């Protein structure tokens, strides 16, 4: 890969007043959501957040995005990266949303439509 080339094709944006919850998937994990400290940014393809947990790359989690004006959006996601955040205390984590469709281990197409709506509302031209 060439240094400095942007790999993402989806624009990142922020939603004022939004928050994120997540929960780990598996037999030995609690069934409740854990609140992230901060939602860093979101795109149609994934989200970045600061939270207290450390994750293995490739681990599946469910994220729940809460915005002031919409119903919370739950999305099956995969951990793509994790690194120290700017405060060097809690890790920043990036996840990619699972594909959208009707099969097993996919997110509903209705969720993609909500992400597209948010993209139109919050992506700044430029």
The overall number of domains is 1
* CATH homologous superfamily label: predicted glycosyltransferase like domains
H/E element sequence: EEEEEEEH
Low-confidence stretches: 1-6
Counted by DSSP, the helix tally is 1
Principal-axis shape equals globular
What proportion of the residues is helical, as a percent range? 10-25%
- Termini gap: 25 Å
Oligomer: single chain
What is the typical, i.e. mean, pLDDT? 87
Which CATH class? Mainly Beta
State the total count of DSSP E strands.
7
* Largest sheet features: 7 strands, antiparallel
Describe the structure.
The protein has 126 residues and is mostly beta strands. It has one domain: predicted glycosyltransferase like domains (Thrombin, subunit H, Beta Barrel). It is built from 1 helix and 7 strands. It has a 7-stranded antiparallel sheet, with no helix packed on it. A hairpin with a 6-residue loop joins strand 6 (73-84) and strand 7 (91-97). It is globular, with a radius of gyration of 14 Å. The two termini are 25 Å apart. Residues 1-6 have low confidence and may be disordered.
């Amino acid at each position: 890969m060439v240094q400095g080339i942007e790999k993402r094709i989806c624009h990142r944006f922020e939603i004022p007043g939004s928050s994120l919850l997540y929960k780990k998937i598996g037999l030995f994990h609690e069934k409740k959501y854990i609140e992230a400290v901060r939602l860093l940014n979101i795109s149609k393809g994934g989200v970045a957040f600061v939270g207290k947990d450390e994750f293995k790359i490739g681990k599946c989690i469910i994220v729940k995005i809460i915005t002031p004006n919409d119903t919370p959006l739950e999305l099956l996601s995969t951990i793509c990266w994790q690194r120290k955040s700017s405060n060097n205390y809690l890790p920043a984590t990036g996840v990619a949303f699972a594909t959208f469709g009707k099969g097993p281990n996919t997110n509903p197409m209705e969720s993609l439509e909500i992400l597209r709506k948010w993209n139109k509302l919050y992506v700044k031209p430029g």
